[in-house]
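Bit of a strange request maybe. I'm writing a small parser for structure token strings and I need a real example to test against, not something I typed by hand. Could someone generate the tokens for this chain?
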Amino acid sequence: MIDARTIGIGCAVLLPMCIAVPAAHADNRRLNESVVANVYAAQHQAGCTNGVGVNPALRRAAQLHTDDLMNNRTLDGDIGSDGSTPQQRADAAGFRGTVAETVAINPSLAINNLDVLHQWYSDPRAVAIMQDCANTLMGVWSENSLDRSVLVAVYGHPA
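Reply from user aminoacidic:
Good idea to test on real output. This should exercise your parser:
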């Protein structure tokens, strides 16, 4: 059975003459990496001298919450559908330290770096998290669907 995700865009018009094509899956790695680079820049603009590294446990915590936000459209912040907090998700993913989180959501197919920065720079809490020099590790994950794009960044400093 062919679902709507496996049919190419041109097939919507020429359906009788189309063949099924595999669904495309976005690779958001470049977006995710650029968010880390932008946080590094924000920290240095605030006077920080440290680096910002990617941590696999924090990336996993970000992925868990991104998936939750994609699957539960009533959610739009840090609290998960199960009531979990960013700290609880990071702990469960194996991170040992203190964490904070920022979330960007677009009601559209795509989200880009400018969308993310616009949302976070208009939120004093998010700016404070981004500019916190103690946050030397990060995990970023993003996902897209036809009507919703989500990016979650989890920031941490080791115990």
